[in-house]
Design goal:
mainly beta; about 0% helix; 13 strands; four-stranded antiparallel sheet; globular
Length: about 150
Amino acid sequence: TTNVQPEPAPFDTKYSDGDFTIAADEKTLYISSRRPIEEGGKALTESNIWVTKLIEEEWSEPRLLESTVNTEHHDSYPAVTKDGTLYFFSRRPGGLGKSDLYRSRLINGKYAEAENLGPGINTGEHEWDPFIAADESFLIFCSTPLSHQLAP
């Protein structure tokens, strides 16, 4: 075997990059990050979702996804389907709980307005860290059941 030492990804920063998801094309990578939106800017206090693409063996500079996905609130843990639909969790206002699961469909290369997955998935507490099958046949996620929040 070859003794290859791991190296940081070229897009890695000191700004809490994490929750990486690679798309089915194996050339598109989604990242949650608190990196500044503009070069030399201030680090974000909440995560946003970014995308980078593998082009001729090099990763592109990450691009912040549209405001239809990202808000000034915590938007994180991207998961993507074969057709590019993005699932993620957010702590944005207007949800059903403290954090909810959302999806945004990729239409003509742009993400549509994020839609809450509704009361069949989201509760009054926390739902987070979704994993969606590439064909959307199943969804796995973390949840804080309401029953765990009730005093005895």
